[in-house]
Amino acid sequence: MFKIKNKDLVEEITGEAKIFPKYTTQIINLANQNSQGTRPKVVGQLSDLIQECPHKEYVKWKKWYLNKENTAIDDATNKIFPMINEIKRAINLIDKPMVKKWVEDLVLDKTFIGLRFQEAILKRVAKNKEMGYRLSKPEEESKGIDGFIGKIPVSIKPITYKTKSMLNEKIEVKIIFYDKKKDGINVDDSQL
Questions:
Q1: 3-state class (DSSP) for residue 31
Q2: pTM higher than 0.85, yes or no?
Q3: Distance separating alpha carbons of residues 110 and 116, to the nearest angstrom
Q4: CA angle 121, 126, 131 (to 5 degrees)
């Protein structure tokens, strides 16, 4: 068994490995996420384009792509670079008290809310169904039960759980699904 480092893999395939100063790619990546500069509508659907390209060598692919999508690289750059300037401005606003406030928000507020929102979901579902609720006991939790609506054992899972078929967990109880949004939590209790 052996390992090929990412830098070496890139160099092996493309013949060159681009070098960037420390932390810069993380910042550019953040700017790209915020500006959506490399979305398919800007640079094309790359997985399809690679299949469409008649060439399998990097140099020929690069030439073919740049000919087909001749403004894509500049278009993406022009979407991302203004966001870099926004990030520079934001960085200048960050001081030690702000970092402390952020840490408190993450460690204290968001962690507590994240661990307690299951009870809020149980409470609201029970209220809507005009039933009581309770949180599960440790021995019930080990069976995948997060709580009870009336006498019905339930598990509370994120909506993404539905798509995680690789999970070998077998839950034998009704599931209440939730989807966290910026403005709250969408709850699906249709299994009850």
A1: helix
A2: no
A3: 10
A4: 165
